[in-house]
UniProtKB/TrEMBL annotation:
Stored InterPro entries: Cro/C1-type_HTH, Lambda_DNA-bd_dom_sf, MLTR_LBD
Gene Ontology MF term list: DNA binding
Superkingdom field: Bacteria
Name of the protein in its database record: Transcriptional regulator
Species of origin: Microbacterium imperiale
UniProt xrefs under PROSITE patterns: HTH_CROC1
Chain ranges of the HTH cro/C1-type domain: 44-91
SMART domains (alphabetical): HTH_XRE
PANTHER family assigned to the protein according to its UniProt record, in alphabetical order: BLL4672 PROTEIN (PTHR35010:SF2), BLL4672 PROTEIN-RELATED (PTHR35010)
């Protein structure tokens, strides 16, 4: 009995093939100095064009996209990365796919996480939270939990919170913000992680997430200024900054702030004052969008 081709393909090489197909479809002829001829039907580059530019045979490149054969050499991967214009993070991700290394046991925050949680609790005038490689929020200060309408509290997932209908409507730059968040998820989570599979399966019910995940983006601009509509107040301009946690690889610290003298700074101040008084009524309730 003949074994189906799909059953014979190692999972990590199948993932590599999927990544190569996605990047080929996104890369345009103009991006690599080729002329776009009339009647061109492929969404991006053709396989033979990638092979020629990378200095490999078309047959070999086809096998790579199909996940067949042995692991490609770093030299071949570097040549393909050059064709697709991949940056350092995207190249690192592609090498990780090719390696087939199993995921390490989940990294618990431990003492470092507890210390960060204590620090966050002392940040009383700006929302801040820490998420792991799957963007599961493991620590958040009270202001983040209130400003996020509960979505940014510890125990929630930052990606899932972002893909709510409320946030899609309220956040002006939602498309760019969501794409960047999805890219960090692919970048930081191990491709074979059970939690990643669970999360992707859950979120793929949303066609917007499915569309973004299919792009296989790894690096997008993370630090950003976005605008969010808050009922009873108007549109707030929020500055978001993300920081890697050196002691916890894959973990990310996110800080939201408002420019000095801005309405956003005033709203955060009112939320902080309400929390200090021991409640979330009044000013805090009217300024608690779901993030």
């Amino acid at each position: 009995m003949t074994t189906p081709l799909s059953a014979a393909v190692p999972p990590h090489l199948a993932q590599l093939g999927g990544y190569l197909r996605a990047r080929r479809n996104i890369t345009q002829p103009e991006d690599v100095g080729l002329e776009r001829l009339p009647g061109r039907r492929v969404p991006g580059l053709r396989r033979d064009e990638v092979a020629t530019l990378a200095g490999i045979s078309a047959e070999y490149y086809l096998r790579l996209e199909q996940g067949r054969g042995a692991r490609p050499s770093d030299q071949v991967l570097a040549s393909i990365a050059r064709v697709f214009g991949l940056d350092g993070e995207a190249r690192g991700y592609m090498l990780r796919l090719a390696s087939g290394m199993p995921p390490a046991p989940p990294l618990a925050p431990g003492a470092a996480g507890e210390q960060i949680a204590r620090v966050l609790a002392k940040w009383t005038h700006t929302p801040a939270y820490m998420s792991d490689a799957h963007r599961d929020i493991v620590a958040a200060n009270p202001l983040a939990a209130v400003f996020g309408g509960g979505g940014l509290a510890a125990g929630n997932n930052q990606i899932a919170s972002l893909f709510t209908e409320q946030n899609k409507t309220a956040i002006v730059e939602w498309e760019d913000m969501a794409r960047a968040a999805v890219a960090t998820l692919r970048r930081d989570a191990h491709p074979a992680s059970p939690r990643l599979r669970q999360l992707v399966a859950q979120l793929s019910a949303d066609p917007d997430f499915a569309r973004m995940w299919a792009r296989h983006d790894v690096s997008e601009r993370e630090d950003a200024c976005f605008h969010i509509a808050v009922e009873g107040i108007g549109v707030l301009e929020v500055e978001a900054q993300n920081f890697g946690v050196r002691s916890l690889p894959g973990y990310q610290l996110t800080v939201l702030s408002g420019a000095p003298g801005s309405v956003t700074e005033t709203v955060f101040g009112r939320l902080a004052a309400a929390l200090t008084l021991g409640g979330t009524t009044g000013a805090s309730q009217e300024a608690a969008p779901s993030l």
